[in-house]
Amino acid sequence: MKHTLTLLGILIVIASQAQSGIPEWHYGLKADLNYTTINGKGLVSGYTMGAQAGVFVERSFNKNWSLQPELLFTQSNTKRGDDFLTYYNTSGNPFAAKDIKLGYLSLPVMIKYNINKSFSILAGPQYSLLLVDAESLLTKGDGKAFKKSEVSANLGGQFNIGVVSVYGRYNLGINNINNIDNRYAWHASHIQAGIAVKIN
Predict the structure, then answer these.
(1) CATH number of residue 7's parent domain
(2) What is the DSSP-derived secondary structure letter of residue 148?
(3) What's the rounded Cα separation, in Å, for the pair 34 and 177?
(4) Does pTM surpass 0.70?
(5) Quick check: 39 and 189 in contact, CB under 8 A?
(6) Domains held by the chain: number
(7) CA within 20 to 30 Å of 157's CA: 20, 94, 98, 119, which one?
(8) Is 133 within 8 Å of 147 (Cβ atoms)?
């Protein structure tokens, strides 16, 4: 939580400077479809559609390079596998719903390289804090199945048409998000496609 508050503070400072009219600063809104899969024992392997939306701030250093931190709410959906109780027979809930809905506050910090005016490449790390954990995988009293934080890496590209950008991004989870025990690792990955609009 301390790291989250620090990153939020940085974004607020950046946003306040962006509003001061410095030409190197831009900010805007973005939204996308977020296809999630979580690979690991007891879960269904395959992408399930969710959504993602939020704000971004861009600090341009020159015509090619810029830094783009973002603050997003990410909806990640996945499914319990039919073999879940095979791996978690002592703590697993036999009556658990198949659908799993997770909601994260996501903080990507992207490095952006403009190949030309029309196309850019973006890459960078991301920290996500789990805010919504709608699942019943474990028996009552055993807590939640997913860890509160996730660290991941992003790589993507975007087409720029004036103040509007159309982008695609791949997000690869780095840390194990299985909170049940240490026997089996769960790693998330996301394919995202959406639109970003610069307000200034």
Answers:
(1) 2.40.160.20
(2) S
(3) 18
(4) yes
(5) yes
(6) 1
(7) 20
(8) no
